Amino acid sequence: MSYEITYTKKGDYYIPNLTLAKNKYSDYKLSKYGRMRARYLKEYKKAEYTILLIDGKLDEHLYNTDIECKKRYDLLMKKFAEKENITEELKANNQMEWVQKMNNIKNSVEEIIFKELIFV
Q: I need a surface site. Which of 59, 62, 101, 104 has the fewest CB within 10 A?
């Protein structure tokens, strides 16, 4: 196995042309949860971020976090809506109350997701 490193000249310096290997998660478009997790790791968990990046596992980690957050969001929204007795009938009869209750639930659910999956 032979590796050849190429260089690009920038001013007086030669900089190696390094790229990360592509994997099956590289082309996945992250939602806000995956992007938030990436930003959190980059700003507050630099060592963990660097290790994941060097090992080539960062994309997979962000993908898994993103998918898990979406599943958890859907599940919690459904459960909270049932618990608060928010129905399609309420939506048809009183849209403003329905929107208010759904926004409250959404904020609660996202707070749970942030604490359990994103900012850990």
A: 104
How many residues can be counted in the chain? 120
Q: Are 17 and 3 in contact (CB under 8 A)?
A: no
Higher-scoring residue by pLDDT: 23, 32: 32
Nearest to 28 by CA among 56, 67, 68, 71: 67
Amino acid at 50: T
79-84: which pairs have CB atoms within 8 A and are 24 or more residues apart?
80/105, 80/108, 80/109, 81/105
Domain ranges of the chain: 37-118
Helices (H), 5-57: 32-44, 46-55
- Structure token pair of residue 6: 């190429």
Encode pLDDT of 30-41 as tens digits. 999 999 999 999
Q: Which amino acid is at 6?
A: T
Q: How far is CA 98 from CA 19, 24, 25, 54, 91, in A?
A: 49, 40, 37, 47, 5
